[in-house]
Amino acid sequence: MSANGAVWGRVRSRLRAFPERLAACGAEAAAYGRCVQASTAPGGRLNKDLCAQEFEALRSCFVAAAKKTLKGGC
Amino acid sequence: MLRPAGLWRLCLRPRTAGVSTENLGRRKVASAVPPRGGTSPRALNIFDRDLKRKQKNWAARQPEPMKFDYLKEEVGSRIADRVYDIARDFPLALDLGCGRGYIAQHLNKETIGKFFQADIAENALKNSLETEIPTVSVLADEEFLPFRENTFDLVVSSLSLHWVNDLPRALEQIHYVLKPDGVFIGAMFGGDTLYELRCSLQLAETEREGGFSPHISPFIAVSDLGHLLGRAGFNTLTVDTDEIQVNYPGMFELMEDLQGMGESNCSWNRRALLHRDTMLAAAAVYREMYGNEDGSVPATYQIYHMIGWKYHESQARPAERGSATVSFGELRQINNLMSRGEKS
């Protein structure tokens, strides 16, 4: 960590906003979670990007929530 | 800082690409018998102790350390309960990896005469909690205790041995500094600790990046713990399991609390970067797979409590083979046998 921790502080504050934005995307998160959980059932295999579609939906919702709070906040 | 002059480390190159999935989450104990008085030939160097010291120092310097103390306070009070259960008082005691002194605050002057608090992080020792027992703070590593043989009546250790590189050696050192008829009471995180977090991160990282690296440090299995205590020379072992489940609003809060406790990962084979996408995916998986109805997510902390005694002639020993005077078949007449025994 640098002397005044400026970069670390900035990154941390961004990270601290994650739970709020994730809460705004409950449905997409649940869909992604269900997709991953389904692959853990016997006979399922978890490969890379198996649930890419659901994750893209989650990510775009997350980014939209971020833009909204940014506009409203500062 | 106390460092013995002959400090050396066996630096094995940490296995990187070839880590098998069965070994993750379970700590395999070296099965070779160690030579007397030295580290075992395959002594592992899993954790970066320097980094752990920095992390603990950072955590102890947080503006509100009480916010993250709940787990250590709880386990500290359980260990103090076990100390009270032993009908003895201990003139000289040692707390290994004491942190801010979570055990000392629950004990009183009559039970413990003088308490040595040992930890690797000086900030934790400086901000120690109040206690009525006279204490001496020592900056010491759990694996390199700067004490003579047969010094302490009691050694306690609460939730710090899971960051020790050479656990067999640490237990042998504890046995060494104990007086005969001294007792060691310890608590360590066990195999199932934080399994929800570990699984969520593994699944999310596999799905997002095609592979995964360990983010949770390996924990000991209960059978290994019993073997290690026996090998270190302890008698009359007691190992029991406690499970504490704490509910968090989400995965990010859990990770923040773990960092605030000073329990961040410090393994040599840790990956320096955790992608934001992976974190987001893992939080979603965590909530979906393990979440409670009210939206919170549980985190399991499995604690192994252990009690071991150093040998002394006054301690009860198993009877000699073939010295039985009654057989199990006569168990029905146990009342007669007992009154017979009282009369004679």
UniProtKB/TrEMBL annotation, chain A:
One of its GO terms (cellular component) is mitochondrial matrix. InterPro entries: NDUFAF8. It comes from the Eukaryota. One of its GO terms (biological process) is mitochondrial respiratory chain complex I assembly. This is NADH dehydrogenase [ubiquinone] 1 alpha subcomplex assembly factor 8. It comes from Carlito syrichta. The gene is NDUFAF8.
TrEMBL record, chain B:
Residues 94-185 form the Methyltransferase type domain. One of its GO terms (biological process) is mitochondrial respiratory chain complex I assembly. It comes from Carlito syrichta (Philippine tarsier). This is Arginine-hydroxylase NDUFAF5, mitochondrial. Pfam families: Methyltransf_11. Interacts with NDUFAF8, leading to stabilize NDUFAF5. Interacts with NDUFS7. Interacts with PYURF (via TRM112 domain); the interaction is direct and stabilizes NDUFAF5 protein. It is found in: Mitochondrion. InterPro entries: Malonyl-ACP_OMT, Methyltransf_11, SAM-dependent_MTases_sf. The keyword Cytoplasm does not apply. Transmembrane segments: none annotated. Belongs to the methyltransferase superfamily. It comes from the Eukaryota. Keywords: Methyltransferase, Mitochondrion, Oxidoreductase, Transferase, Transit peptide. Its main location: mitochondrion.
